[in-house]
Structures are given as C-alpha cells and as structure tokens.
Amino acid sequence: MNETTTERRSAHLREVAADYQRLAEQLAQSDEADAFAAVAGLALARVPHADAASITTLRHGRFVTAAATNDVARRADSLQYEIGSGPCVDAIVDRTVYQPEDLADDPRWPEYGARVVAELGLHSMLSFRMNLESTGVIAGLNFYAVQPAAFDDHDLAEGLLLTTHAAQAVTAAHFRSRALNLEQALASNRDIGTAIGVLVAQHKVTRDQAFDLLRIASQNSNRKLHEIALGVIDTGTVDVTPHSGAAGGA
Q1: For residue 167, is it within any domain?
Q2: Which partner from 73, 122, 169, 217 sits 20 to 30 angstroms from 48, CA to CA?
C-alpha cells in the first residue's frame, strides 16, 4: 500500500512537472513581451471556468493592475483598491490563497462582495500571491467568474502553476534588466576613465582636474557625462567654453 501511495505521488509530481514545462512552452510562444500580460492572457485558456483574470502589483503602498484580460477584471480590481479589501488585495497582504465561492454572502468581504456582484455580476474568485520578494515587487494573480463556486481543485492547481511560472518569468526579467543596467554602467564608467586618461596625457592635468573638466563640459552643454567622455576619446579634447545660453545670455 505504501508503495502504491509512493508511486501515485511520483506520478503526480511528474504530471505537475510536465504541465509546468508545457506552460513554459506556451508562454514562450506568446506574442506578449511583458511576463505579466502573457500570464494573464494564458490564464483564461488554462482555467476555463474563469471569465476574467488579472495581475495586481503592490508598489510603495499602492495597488495597481499590471495586466488584465478585460475591463471587467480591471474594474473588479479597482473596487478592491478603492475599498482597501478584497480577495486579491488580502491574498497579497496575508501571503495566502483565497477562493470565495459566493461573494454575495461571504462575511470576509461584505462591502466588496455586495458591490462586485451588483455592479459586475461576479460571484467567484481565486486569488494567489506571487513570491517575488527578490525583485522588490509584490504581486498577485486573480481569477473572476460569474457563476458561484466556479473554481474546483483542478483550477486551484492550475492557478498555482501559473502563479509560480509568472513569478519565475518576472524575476528572470527583473535580473536581466538589472544585469543590463549594470553592464551599461560599467561600460560608461570605463569610457569615463578612458577619457580622463586621454585628458591627462594630452593636456597634462591631474586625474581630478580631468574629471572636473568632464563635469564642467557636461553641465555647460546639458549632455550626459558619458556622451562627453565619448567625445573626448574621439577628439582628444573637451569644450569647456561657456555657452551664452548656459551663462544666462550675453
């Protein structure tokens, strides 16, 4: 019996892993460059009981809908931000999953439930928090449905896969962006260092004086320091003559 249980568990894990890989392939084929938008768009296909889906982010104490499949999802999100409570907001804050079966009479969200049912006709929700702590972004994935008790255990599992993959995709994109920014910063610093060396060699100034000349030229021309440095590398000199506009007119 234990062996059967182990085999079933192993088969389940293999199935989950295979489904996760299929999801990755589907997302890779998506036209959406934004990971949030790609996941939101795929959510309805993967969770057919949902009528709408969205992704909420929390930055600097403010909730924002980062992606949504339609205006209904955006309006349902917006109601929660306005009230300050609701399944998607609370799933993010409470670090959990919420699956209200009928918001018309759910005591946890009486105000939101009354309004979302009356204004949008939505009864069911399924909300997850994404684990994005390493990026500094807090986010959640939300599913909405008109029918009460629309979501089952399969939808719950599917939502978990989507949430996990979205978190991975967004985290990867975040660190790619950071790496690119760092690479650009290092390249810029190298060019500035080269320009300083050129000025020192060509004009017999100290390194500090050379850097000051770059800053003066940058301020005078309203151009970035890196642009000035590239000009120095090309020409061997730098223009620090005050322009009439920069000097307040002549």
Answers
A1: yes
A2: 169
SS3 250: coil
Over residues 212-228, mean pLDDT:
81
Please state, in angstroms and rounded to a whole number, the distance separating the CA atoms of residues 223 and 231. 11
Contact assessment for residue 148 and residue 102, using Cβ atoms and an 8 Å cutoff:
yes
Residue 82 lies in a domain: yes
Range of the domain at 223: 185-235
> Is a pLDDT exceeding 50 seen at residue 160?
yes
Nearest-5° Cα angle at 235, 233 to 239: 100
| pTM for the full predicted model | 0.63
CATH of the domain at 218: 1.10.10.10
What are the counts of helices (DSSP H) followed by strands (DSSP E) for the chain?
8, 4
* End-to-end CA gap in the chain: 94
